[in-house]
What does this fold into?
Amino acid sequence: MLNKMYRDLFLIIDGNSLAHRAYHAIPALSTSRGVATNAVYGFTNMLLKVLADLRPQLVTVAFDKGPVTFRISEFSDYKAHRKATPDDLRSQFPLLKEVLRAMRIPMVEVEGYEADDIIGAMTRLAENSGRKSIVLSGDRDTLQLVSPHTRVLLTKKGITETEEYDEHKVFERYGITPSALIDLKGLMGDASDNIPGIPGVGEKTALVLLKDFNSVEEVVARAEDLPSRLRQKVAEYGEQALMSKKLATIEREVPLDINIDSCIWPGPDYPELLSVFSRLEFKTLVRKIMSSAGGQEESAKSKARKGKDHSPGPDVATYHVDCLCVTDDAGAEELLEEAEKEGRVALALAGDRKEGLAAAAVAMADKVYYLPDTGKARLLGVILEICSNPRIEVMGHDIKNQAWLLHPHGGRLVNVTFDPMLAAYLLNPASPNQGLADLALECLGIVLPLEGNDYLTTRAHTTARLAGILTDKLIGQDSLGLFRDVELPLALVLAGMEIAGVTVNPAILESMAVDLEAQIESAAEQIHGLAGEDFNINSTRQLGVILFEKLGLPVIKRTKTGYSTDAGVLEELAGAHPIMPLILEYRSLVKLKSTYVDGLRAIINPDTGRIHTTFHQTVTATGRLSSAEPNLQNIPIRLEQGRRIRKVFVPRDEENLILSADYSQIELRVLAHMAGDDILIEAFKEGQDIHTRTASEVFGVPLDQVTGELRNRAKAVNFGIVYGISDFGLSRDIRVSRAEARRYIESYFNRYRGVKNYIDNTIAEARDKGYVTTLLNRRRYLPDLFSSNRITRNFGERAAINTPIQGSAADIIKLAMIRLQKELDGRSLKAKMVLQVHDELIFDVPAGEIQEMRRLVRECMENAVQLKVPLVVDIKMGPSWYDVKKT
It folds into this structure.
């Protein structure tokens, strides 16, 4: 229960101090467009916590404004050694003030005065009006303001902990009264503010002096009574001590243009606060407010009539739309008639992927229909007719998932024209705000209900409202073509691939599990034999003791709990002892068994006998697809034991074959095209082995004299250049000195001048625009390019080099997938496209369609786009994904 002193409490916040605290306490944080936000985020979290804990009636925030003229005129070197405010903190103050305006908390700044002085003036106003006040600050100077009416809440550790000071607490800590703290600083000075004090007098000596003498003035006046060492110092620096006391004294007679009643806090403007949080991408804070909003529709005015409780409680109403509830055949026919007349609808569907559709909402220009139970045959039928009608444009958020919900009923989408999630992704792939609730708040300023009767209707209506707004943004970014021609049709292609799934042979999985278990046990026995004792190999602590204490191997890295035995450490120690290769093998085997063999067994669909992975279309910043549940793009292929996992993926019928189509060196071909490098273009046009040609160019040897080792080094250089590799990275990868690796890179750029120019120009253009684009104008913003941290900046440069190349390769295979699926459908072929693994497509093909599919796949993939160099596809076939071979 709160102490009585908190009734009518006035909370006064030191804005500059808290912002600096938050900036240094919270790791670098920025929006997807590169706007720094760590100080704002930390400040806001602290503010919300203190408001919730204290529930003050009055609130204000004080900020510095301009140079502190009266102190600088007294001492020109005041704060002279204070470092300038970092640029990425200075830029956050306007954002911080936006948050405070949305919180409806008044801010006070007075030219020539520091925040401390304003705080002192505000506490004086509070005391004069008979109110209690509490100061929130990280600056101990404010402790001088502590009185029977004023307490100070000091941030203790970052911004997560605070310590409250009253008069007793100040005396307990310093042994003097709060008002004497200015005398303490006058004697000892303050290095942070460049207040000189008396040289050689520290806190301990100053406190002893103040116990014997009441003030600096008395110490100076009675210098003759001091020990000889101090007597001389006080005599020489007495005037400096008096000036230091004056500099340390908070000025409480500040000309304020605000009265105390204007600081009465009415609570936040929640719609505005949600808008600010959404723009700053504070998803946690947005969810917190939206969750607490939860359907409350009581206005702030009605709350005010009930009393003076200004505790946080949202006055924001969640979005509501009037709808026509369809529960019978007559309503269903009306809906269908309106949809056909309108020619454009927005859908919001509910259900699950196994059982299918359970409820639906359909929004049109001025009507919203709600179907609470699509278990009724005619209601379901109407939705299926709308979705399959080529004359009705359909919009939906996460359209791929909606296609899944229609699948159990035999339904499909044929004329999809808009998906807010895909549009938001193209507008900024790094943004976390792709959910419909996020977009509604960001673009429309509305809060969608998270559940309840309005859940579907508001989503359908919001999807329709967002279409025009997001389409205009896509046009402004020149991304509308990429949206309509690539991402939107691809969503339905991916839905079909997920639904089709890939067949798994459970008998092979079982056999692999037994085999791996035996290998794991064998490796463990050998490890225990070399260690001389049994121990838990999976225990980091026990393994660390064996390696670094018993066997005496060099300690590479430590953690908070002991020795590090992560993969990097073990790799570095690989040749240090015979036990190391066995431990690496053991870990590899355990991961293969748990992640892939056991993991795959657990997720085989019992109804289809297949694995239905999920392809994520809106996750990567480069435009590449990713796979999850399970991640079939990440099956290890470097080692034979990992590659063997592919044996379990087989065709759905015994007479079928797996067809694998893999783009050959597509990223290097894209680099040749984008860089316009004559040597690379020539090599690809002539069908030369690009790594052999690079070895010849870089190492200065004839093509027919390039050895396997030289080719491998050239291969590392080729792919390293695409990813912006450094001499350190290359030296590590090919095990040469950094100097030698640097020579390789320099030699490469001397021969491939077009590539060097491309890299330099791309980085320069990215710095100028803030983003890079692919061949199809996919955009990626690169805020890291502007970081003050060199390592982060270097990462931004590597992303600038790689994104146009990797992103263009991703765009190309997406175009090929769309064209291939269109051909499969148009020719009524039974072959299925079942997997995409970066540059490779996997098909399940009936024996009778093999020759047609070989021609079709090659034609669609190699002609997806026209580059300055030819696209080449390697096609392989076999009875399993592992056993595919060139034919």
